[in-house]
Amino acid sequence: MTEHVRIDDPADFPPQEDTVERLWTPQRMTYVLRNSEDRPTKPKTKECPFCAGPKKSDEDGLIAWRGTHVFAIMNLYPYNVGHLMICPYRHVGFITELDDAELFEFEKATTLAMKVMEAVSHPDGYNIGINQGEVAGAGVAAHLHQHVVPRWNGDANFMPIVAQTRTMPILLEDQRAAYAAAFERLAPGLNLPLA
């Protein structure tokens, strides 16, 4: 027995009362509903976020994959939906400070991240890069991290330019979970460990 699904015709909706488009961001309610005393005014810790992340559960630390020498972590302030970073566990600022095993896994994990994004999100391309040093634009200059950002044809619109706003169609937790499942499935094919 097939269940009947009602589909409303947009022509039957009442006319729009103004010309303003709405951007619905329900995830912001956790911020809006917090008491003012709970809202951080400055960072609660000076610990490096890339050193702190692996000490937490994967969910709390936004960790998508843990290797032997490096890990993949979602960007808390993404340039684009699905943006993650590959970081060594060791607190070093420059790629030249990695030993051979770390460097190999660092780059191999970047390849794995691209395969994960292809399997989960089907991007048309990628931005991959490292900003080394504060002067080069590194937000966390003391801890090396490589950005892997999926891109789609037409993914940029007026919002970042006119409204200084990026629209994110999926919550970080949900994106992390989807990536984590794909990392687990694909890592063995690249001879990368699962922690």
Automatic annotation (TrEMBL):
- Segments carrying motif Histidine triad motif: 143-147
| Record-linked InterPro entries | AP-4-A_phosphorylase, FHIT, HIT-like, HIT-like_sf
Task: Enumerate the spans annotated as HIT domain.
Answer: 49-158
- Gene3D superfamilies, sorted: HIT-like
Annotated substrate binding sites: N75, G137, A138, G139, V140, H147
What's one Pfam family here? HIT
| Keyword Glycosyltransferase annotated | no
Name assigned to this protein: HIT family hydrolase
Its lineage opens with: Bacteria, Bacillati, Actinomycetota, Actinomycetes, Bifidobacteriales
